TrEMBL record:
CDD domains, per the entry: bS6
Region Disordered, residue ranges: 113-154
InterPro entries attached to this UniProt entry: Ribosomal_bS6 (IPR000529), Ribosomal_bS6_sf (IPR035980), Ribosomal_S6_plastid/chlpt (IPR020814), Transl_elong_EF1B/ribsomal_bS6 (IPR014717)
Alphabetical list of Gene3D superfamilies matching this protein: 3.30.70.60
Positions with biased composition (Basic and acidic residues): 124-142
Gene Ontology biological process: translation
Source organism, top-level taxon: Bacteria
Species the sequence originates in: Anaeromyxobacter diazotrophicus
Protein name as it appears in the record: Small ribosomal subunit protein bS6
Keywords: Ribonucleoprotein, Ribosomal protein, RNA-binding, rRNA-binding
Keyword Ribonucleoprotein: yes
GO molecular function: small ribosomal subunit rRNA binding; structural constituent of ribosome
A Pfam entry, by short name: Ribosomal_S6
Cited function: Binds together with bS18 to 16S ribosomal RNA.
Length: 154
């Protein structure tokens, strides 16, 4: 009877997209605001991951790029609704999605990790024609074009 009750909570992750032109100071303010919301609701933020500016699958509000952020946290069932309510009030947040990762996570055993900033992927920038020689089936200068044989000709 002397053993302490384990506090079991759920583990969630939220991915949210910020406008691509959001300054770093404002990104930090948003992170601290969300961290305060999670703490106030009795949860704990495990880690924030800044995944950098990336091209979106489709234009969001006429912007083809966005700053991708990932938040991993644990807490009770009402925490996600409050976090999403706060995300809706921030003007620079253009999209967000939350999912439950696990049930029955021990609150005290889950340790807080350091925030991560991931380098964005290299852009597929258009290269000059000289750098692309030999790619995409391009012909060299001495190579002639052969017309395909007509069907029915022998």
């Amino acid at each position: 009877m002397a053993e302490a009750q384990k506090r079991l909570v759920r583990e969630y992750e939220t991915i949210y997209l910020l406008k691509a032109d959001t300054p770093d100071e404002q990104v930090e303010e948003i992170k601290e605001r969300l961290r305060a919301v999670v703490t106030r609701e009795g949860g704990k933020v495990i880690r924030f991951t800044n995944q950098g500016k990336r091209k979106t699958a489709f234009a969001i509000g006429k912007n083809p790029r966005a700053l991708y952020m990932h938040c991993l946290y644990i807490g009770g069932s009402g925490l996600v609704a409050e976090l999403e309510r706060n995300l809706k009030m921030i003007d620079t947040v253009v999209k967000f999605q939350s999912i439950r990762l696990a049930d029955d996570v021990d609150f005290e055993a889950r340790q807080v990790e350091q925030d991560i900033k991931v380098a964005p992927p290299e852009e597929d920038a258009a290269r000059p024609r000289e750098e692309r020689s030999g790619e995409f089936g391009e012909r060299s200068d001495g190579e002639a074009f052969e017309a395909p044989a007509e069907i029915g000709e022998d």
